Amino acid sequence: MMVLVALGLGACRPLGVLDAITPVADVPRALDRAYAPGPRGGVDLYWPQSPAPGTPILVFFYGGNWRTGDRADYRFAGEAFAGRGYITAVPDYRVFPEGRFPRFVQDGAAAVAGIRALVAAQGLPADGPLILAGHSAGAHLAMLLALDPRWLAAAGLPRCGVSAVLGLAGPYDFLPIEAPDVRAVFADAADLRDTQPITFASADDPPAVLLHGTGDTVVRSANSERLAQALRSAGGTASLRLYPGAGHSEIVAALAAPLRGVAPVLADADTLLRAALASPRPRCS
């Protein structure tokens, strides 16, 4: 955690400073595209040079305790995945108080359902496999969309349309909710079990890649460990990587070019996602 403390990044502080210390990469982009009306309905797109048909599309949801976050602060993440060969989308979504559960999940579903059209509008191939990804609260959002089929179905997209899901330091199994600020986010849920991605672990889930630091005191790594075990026990597929001593913000900060020596998060995510995409999946009709 010492590197991030030196940069002024606490466990839950915004990570926008990483863009300031990360040189702008030679990555094509289209900013401020809209997947929904309103100030939180925008998305930024990043892509590799000359993407071929079948290039994977990765939708990355940032974290912020379901209360903060802005896609403009995550250029470093968009460029990182684009540099690895993914067409990458970083959408905004409503946050508390407007974004109480399930509204932020509905926003995420709308972003995912509309992403191929936005990619195609840039003249890019939009036929590649779809990956959902996120950090912290964004990982919770990505995992809930991937594992609970109701949200994407309501937005017109079958769950089989998701080929893999990547979670960085995500909360997936956190009942009972003890923190008052988190309880407020989920207070409208009729059944709190529906807010937990682990509830929906099944053999039909897309392959999951779970990356977490053992030094994370904000979201304990047991969240990823328990979800990996639940998915495997249900007949699903989960790859788990734990980084000894790494903290909550370090996992996502390690995507930024100047901090990739902190932990091999980007390389591991790429390797494990490529392996997941290569595994047989049911035909999506």
Structure in words:
Helix content is 33%, strand content 15%. It has 285 residues and is α/β, with parallel strands linked by helices. The protein has one domain (2-278): Rossmann fold, CATH 3.40.50.1820. Helix 8 (222-233) links the parallel strand 7 (208-213) and strand 8 (238-243).
Number of domains: 1
Task: Please state how the strands of the largest beta sheet are arranged side by side.
Answer: 1-2-4-3-5-6-7-8
CATH superfamily: Alpha/Beta hydrolase fold, catalytic domain
Termini Cα gap: 46 Å
Structural class: alpha/beta
Strand content range: 15-25%
**Helix share bin:** 25-40%
Low-pLDDT runs of 5+ residues are 5-13
Pfam families: BD-FAE
Keywords: Hydrolase
Domain BD-FAE-like: 44-231
GO molecular function, one term: hydrolase activity
Summarize the structure.
It comes from Plastoroseomonas arctica. The protein is an alpha/beta fold and 285 residues long.
Topology record:
Layout lengths: L1 H5 L10 H5 L7 E6 L7 E5 L10 E5 L13 H9 L3 E5 L11 H19 L8 E6 L1 H11 L1 H6 L9 E5 L11 H6 L22 E6 L8 H12 L4 E6 L4 H6 L11 H14 L7
InterPro entries: AB_hydrolase_fold, BD-FAE-like_dom, GDXG_lipolytic_enzyme
Protein name: Alpha/beta hydrolase
Keywords: Hydrolase
Main features:
hydrolase activity, BD-FAE-like_dom, Rossmann fold, Alpha/beta hydrolase, 33% helix, GDXG_lipolytic_enzyme, AB_hydrolase_fold, 285 residues, 8-stranded mixed sheet, 15% strand, alpha/beta
